[in-house]
Amino acid sequence: MSNTPIKKNIISAGQKYVPISNGSKVHFHFQTWKLGNERILLDDSREIGKREPMVLIIGHKFKLEVWESIVKMMAVGEIASFHVKKELVYSYPFVSKTLRELGSEHRNRHTCTMTLQTEGIGFSDLDNLINKPCDLEFIIELLKIESSNEYEKELWQYSGQERLNLVPKLKERGNILYGQKLYDEAEDVYCQAIGICEQFMNRERKCDEEWITLNKMKLPVLLNYAQCKLVKGDYYAVIEHCNTILEYEQDNEKALYRRAKAHVGAWNPDSAKDDFQRLKFINPSLSSIVDKELENLRNMRKQKEEQDKKALEKLFIKEKETQQYTTINRKPKFFFYNVTKLHLFIGKTLIAEAAKPAPDPLVRKRKQEEDGTQNKKQKEGENKSQEERLKDAVTPYWDMPYEDQLKVKEHEIKNLLMKFDNDVWKIHKEKRGEIESNRKIYNGLSFELKPIEKSPITEGYRNKCEFTVGIDDETEQPTVGFRLGSYATGTVAVAPVSSLNHISEKMKKAVLVFQDFVRQSNMAPFSPADYSGYWRYLTVRESKSSGDLMLIIAMYQQDLTTEKMEELKKQLIEHFGTEESVACNIKSVYIELITKRRAGEDGSKPFHLTGSTHIIDTILGRQFRISPQAFFQTNTAGANILYQSAIDMSQVKSDTTVVDICCGTGTIGLCFAKHCDKVLGLELVAEAVMDAKANAELNGIKNCEFFTGKAESILPSVLARVTGNDVIAIVDPPRAGLHMRAVTQLRNTKKVKRLVYISCSPASVIKNLVDLSRPSSKTLWGAPFVPVRAIPVDMFPYTRHVELAVLFEREKTNEQDDEEPVPEDIIGDNEMKEVDSTNGEIMEDIVLRKNDDIQI
Predict the structure, then answer these.
(1) Between residues 72 and 823, the one the model is more confident about
(2) What is the DSSP pairing of strand 727-731 with strand 752-759?
(3) Which end of the chain is more exposed for a tag (fewer CB within 10 A), N or C?
(4) Which of 197, 584, 671, 760 is catalytic?
(5) More confident site: 348 or 486
């Protein structure tokens, strides 16, 4: 046998040779014979898979490259055999496996190397060929050759830019199909366009211009795709896609309209009503269309009620023997209506008594007052002035010297940490001796507790307050202030805030400016007792560095028409342009229309009315942009102490990577940035991430990246980006603490050597602290963290609250730091770009433009 790797033998001559180049499409049938002691047929294209000719696109890196060489030797119509050396056909078993499974309902799973060695690929003859490679003979019948411009390419055949250029064409084709009412076909075309966009988006980082361009290209196609789903009645898919669009662009009118229509179809009438009303608010010119939809919705409600009524009637039959009414299955049933006398059933009157609800707190309190059954605390409160009751409710330490407040808080923190320390002692039997030894050094604790850090400012320290709009129980006037107690205790009265010492004078004046408007408006404050009224609360944010104020007015639209709302907005803009408002330094005003929040949907968001869209404050020399819903420590001066303490205790170095978990607007991470190599921030709220990026740009900081998503979902992917060996995690979670999955990821990532846990509610996060310290287990297989130092910082003078920062260090073990197993949900570096948020991966926010396709 010759050493030639491919030996050809013509069986039947062909017609003519056609030049073959990259992009040419070649059609041929083939047989594959295994050569050796005997000649065995492996495959015949007429018998396997779809029983169709093989199609090969030249130059597209087909796994069996030898076939490209073979067909280039042939003329169209020719049949020839090719003896091929085994070195050129090692990949054939895998090609054959794929071809055999084409057209089969059952497809074997992907085969990894370990499985291949133990189980094979599912076909015994191919497994034998893998284990004992040999020469193969291919009998090829060349049927047809098409040049690249003679056939319509499939998507995968296009180059990158060619595919992007296809998107507007596919969108246009989809629109034509939609106009012809070919909704399935239109949906498929839109889906192809969306797939192209997402494929390229996955290669870009979301903050890059290219990603933004791709996302802008995708959004209008997704909106049209949702329209196809709406026409076909796939309402929940429409809601999901429109939620995605509205997550990025809350004022997208078409997405709102289509989601509202989908809610009607899925019969979520309250959600539909909310979307229609929001659409009216955003674009008053659509009022006539929306009013018609709302009228249709009301009529549908009535029809549904009538249908339910008739269905209820049919549940009852008359039993002649007993003259009683029972259900069809003869088991008595009771139906409760919100009326005392139900309509006639088969000539008989049924009486339905209303079920008694849980007693309303306000009603209960009034009854207690009438009966004289208040508890001791309630009676004591009645003997105090309104001012004293307000101070007791809002600033319970108002009459305690500040040094005494610090002693109380320090004592409470020590007791709390001793409970944590005892929990650690219980679960670490082998370390009890060490813990007890350390307790002798650290005054009863196994780690150091630093003295409490004072707040640099104790008067007017708050930079954010949420004031309730209600009725003053003394003047009986609408008042903007604080409640004298919670509604759960039966308290709805609101008292003015002039006597409170934790609010600045500037903020108090701004409250009075808005209070004047409320009183002049002749619109009642919202009442939690009967859900009537309009004004709910006023949030005031203050920059302690510039003195600028931001106001967010929250209200219920109730029965106000779009025209009245527009007039009200104009009045508010005019009111906050007066000299009195300017004197208060009110630089930004927002309004928020409160709607009922439902699962899977975002709550109501503020709309900008006038002035700047944000204010600027400073921490540790860094400037921070504060938007209406952004998290920012409420004591700016105290935040300087807290963040500097975290930096000092963390022992951060120039080659350290800092992972800032629950980063908010990036305040902690950006303060760390100049001390470390890189900062990676994680945050659930997309608007906060946008602020964090803007803050990094504002301060000229280049070594920070921020990602949106739940910490427990995206933490593995973010940690996968870390290249250095010195990693510090900074954790500043919401009041309830970290999700257990996030704690697990931190424990199991050996690169994280130190961890600083910051909490505004230390009692709520004890479980997190204990879980970080637990002995290694099947779930928490990483070495535990050991508490080293704790620092309480008083961020809230005159209240019971205190901030706590705890430094943990990874317990040193004798084991070498082997390469860590990669968690299943981590994606590869080359794919670490943008992943659908519904799969729990990285999702960053971006503002998208409106589109002008399929009209409402």
Answers:
(1) 72
(2) parallel
(3) N
(4) 760
(5) 486
Residues 254, 260, 262, 268, Cα dihedral to 10°: 170
pLDDT tens by residue, 65-77: 899 999 999 999 9
Please give the full DSSP string across 819-852, using - where no structure is assigned.
PPPPPTTPPPGGG-S---GGGTS-----------
- The yes-or-no verdict on residue 149 having pLDDT over 50 is yes
pLDDT tens-digit map of 77-106: 999 999 999 989 888 998 888 888 875 544
Total count of residues recorded for the chain: 856
Residue 317: helix, strand or coil by DSSP?
strand
Pairing of the two strands 752-759 and 549-555: unpaired
Q: Which two tokens stand for residue 716?
A: 């593995």
Confidence of residue 321 (pLDDT cuts 50, 70, 90): very low
Cα dihedral 727→728→732→737 (10° resolution): 70
The region, left, alpha or beta by phi > 0 then psi within -120 to 50, assigned to residue 323 is left
CATH 3.30.470.30 fits 635-812, yes or no: no
- Catalytic residue status for 760: yes
The CATH class of the 6-151 domain is: alpha beta
The alpha-helical segments, DSSP class H, found in 347-401 are 361-371, 376-382, 386-394
DSSP string, 213-258: HHHHHHHHHHHHHHHHHHHTT-HHHHHHHHHHHHHH-TT-HHHHHH
Distances (CA, A) of 531 to 135, 560, 684, 751: 83, 15, 31, 53
Q: Alpha-carbon distance 765 to 757, whole Å?
A: 10
Q: Are 705 and 832 a contacting pair, CB within 8 Å? A: no
Q: Where are the domains of the chain?
A: 6-151, 156-305, 315-351, 464-617, 635-812
Long-range (24+ apart) CB contacts under 8 A made by 38-47 are: 39/137, 40/125, 42/96, 42/125, 42/126, 42/129, 42/136, 43/96, 43/99, 43/100, 45/99
> By the 8 A CB rule, do 728 and 701 touch?
no
Residue 601 pLDDT level (bands cut at 50, 70, 90): low
The average pLDDT across 593-620 equals: 83
683 is in an annotated binding site: yes
Q: What is the CATH number of domain 156-305?
A: 1.25.40.10
**Closest Cα to residue 477, out of 441, 507, 519?**
519
Whether 318 shows a pLDDT value over 70: the answer reads no
Token duo for residue 697 = 């740009």
Using an 8 Å Cβ cutoff, are 625 and 694 in contact? yes
Q: pLDDT value at position 841?
A: 30
Q: What is the pLDDT of residue 188?
A: 87
Q: Is 371 annotated as a binding residue?
A: no
Q: Which residues touch 528 (CB under 8 Å, ≥6 apart)?
A: 487, 492
**Residue appearing with tokens 């595919």:** 163
Instruction: Specify the CATH architecture of the domain 464-617.
Output: Beta Barrel (2.40)
What is the distance between the alpha carbons of residues 671 and 665, in angstroms, rounded to a whole number? 12
pLDDT of residue 327: 41
In this structure, are strands 464-471 and 448-449 parallel, antiparallel, or unpaired?
Answer: unpaired
Integer Rg of the chain from CA: 35
Cβ 139 vs Cβ 81: under 8 Å: yes
Please tell me the distance from the alpha carbon of residue 381 to that of residue 394, in angstroms, as a whole number. Answer: 14
Inform me whether the pLDDT recorded for 154 exceeds 70: no
Q: 760 phi and psi, to 5 degrees?
A: -90, -10
Cα 787-789-791 angle, rounded to 5 deg? 125
Q: What end-to-end distance do the CA atoms of the chain give, in Å?
A: 74
